[in-house]
Every structure is written in C-alpha cells, then in structure tokens.
Design a protein that fits this description.
Layout (H helix, E strand, L loop, with lengths): L2 H7 L13 H11 L12 E6 H16 L20 H16 L6 H9 L9 E8 L4 H20 L3 E5 L6 H8 L5 E10 L15 H4 L6
Bound molecules: flavin mononucleotide (FMN).
The site of flavin mononucleotide has 12 residues, from strand 3.
GO molecular function, one term: oxidoreductase activity
Protein name: Oxidoreductase
InterPro entries: Nitroreductase, Nitroreductase-like, Nitroreductase/BluB
Length: about 220
C-alpha cells in the first residue's frame, strides 16, 4: 500500500470484528510512528496500548458508568468552542448528518444517537486501543505534534490491514482510563484510539471534505 492509498483508505471506522490485533503488530506500528516530527524533537506523546484483559476491564468499568447515566468527569480541555462559528458549525452538522444517514438513524431520534455515541466507550467492538496523554505544561504546538503522531499511527495501521477511530470521547471518562493505565501526575488524556479489523457488514459513511478552494490558496506566477 502506498502513502496515497493509506491516506485515502483511512477513515474513522466505528464497527470492528473481534479478531485480535497481535501485540507485535502494534509494537511495529508504534515503533515506526515515533518517526513523526515534533517541534525541537520534544516527542510530547505518552501512549498506553491496551489489548486483552486491561482493555476488557476498561470497557466494563466505563459501561457501568454509561449505564448509570454518569455524565463523565470534569473536562480537562475544551473539545470545541461553545459557539462554533461558520463554516465549522456547518461542517460539523454535515458530518453528523452523513454519519446518521449511514447508520440509518433519523436526526430526531435522540436515543439512537445517544446509543451511537455510547459505542465509543466499547471502542466500537475493537480488540485494541491506544490512549495518548500530554504533559499539562506543554502548549498548543505540542498538541499539534501529537496530531501528527496520531495520524502517522493511523496510516501505518492501514499498511497492516487495520483500521482505527481516533476518540476524544474517552476524555469524558478520563478518570476510569486513568484507573486502568495509571498515567504520571500532571498528564492530560488527549485522545483514545480504537484499533482493529473493520466489520465490513456495517454501513459506513465516507465523510465529505470541503472543496479544495475553501481551504487551500495557491499563489503562483
Ligand atoms: C482528534 C480527533 C478526535 C476524534 N474523536 C472522535 C470521537 O470521540 N468519536 C468518534 O466517533 N470520532 C471521533 N473522531 C473522528 C472524526 O469524527 C472523523 O475523523 C471526521 O468526522 C472525518 O471522518 P473520517 O475520518 O471518517 O474521514 C475524532 C477525530 C479526531 C481527529
């Protein structure tokens, strides 16, 4: 698989089979992903890779909280500005509509939408997951470095025939994640990531992108 194929076949997959992801594969991916660039080579990522019993325990503890209607832990960072302005608001709405359409959920069916969100905390059935932390003393540029690192992981996973879904949703139940992985003091959970083989029987959305001219300006002679 070349890089273009990896980029275009990567998408947020939200239905996985229970086929295990071998630890050696995750080690291979993670040992190459650290070649991702970071400003002054700070390498600000701190990753926990969970498979088997620890992941099952995390899913179980989180499912109990979800079932109890627990709204989650105090947020450590804002996922989105409270008033999302144009064009971001429209793009977010369009993506949500495309996801609901693929799942066959009418937009007004709040219960079905809540169930779709809750699937995050079962890792959409995936047998492997990563949790990426950042030192709270680091700033926006280092958070951006982590984005590059996570995308590098997701592209390498494609080369292994695997799919993924990055998940800020795990920050909602971050204390339960911390109980299982025991991060050092002073670290913030930025993102989880479900990893596995795609359940190809599930419908999925190919989320559209804005036309290139909306986000790229060429200046040439
Ligand atoms: C940092 C980050 C966090 C995300 N968090 C979630 C999440 O918690 N749950 C989820 O289902 N998708 C999550 N996504 C996936 C996005 O919704 C998805 O990438 C976007 O809608 C574009 O779709 P595509 O990746 O399938 O092309 C996240 C993506 C990123 C980059």
């Amino acid at each position: 698989m070349d890089v273009y194929q990896a980029v275009s076949s990567r998408r947020a997959v939200r239905a996985f089979t229970d086929e295990p992801v071998p630890r050696e594969v995750l080690e291979r991916v993670l040992s190459h992903a650290v070649r991702a660039p970071s400003g002054s080579n700070l390498q600000p990522w701190n990753t926990y890779a969970l498979i088997g019993a620890p992941l099952a325990e995390l899913k179980k503890r989180t499912a109990e909280r979800v079932a109890a209607g627990d709204p989650g832990d105090e947020r450590e960072y804002q996922m989105y500005p409270p008033e999302l302005k144009s064009p971001y608001r429209e793009r977010r709405l369009a993506a949500a509509e495309q996801r609901c359409a693929a799942l066959g959920i009418p937009r007004q069916d709040k219960r079905a939408r809540a169930e779709a969100v809750a699937a995050n905390w079962d890792c959409f059935g995936a047998p492997a997951a990563l949790f990426c932390y950042i030192d709270r003393d680091l700033g926006p540029a280092q958070w951006a470095d982590i984005g590059m690192y996570l995308q590098t992981i997701m592209l390498l996973l494609r080369a292994e025939g695997l799919h993924s879904c990055p998940q800020m949703a795990w920050s909602v139940y971050r204390e339960t994640v911390a109980e299982v992985v025991s991060p050092p003091d002073g670290f913030i959970l930025f993102c989880g990531m479900s990893i596995g083989f795609e359940d190809t029987s599930a419908n999925h959305a190919r989320i559209e992108r804005a036309p290139l001219a909306e986000t790229v300006t060429f200046l040439d002679g």
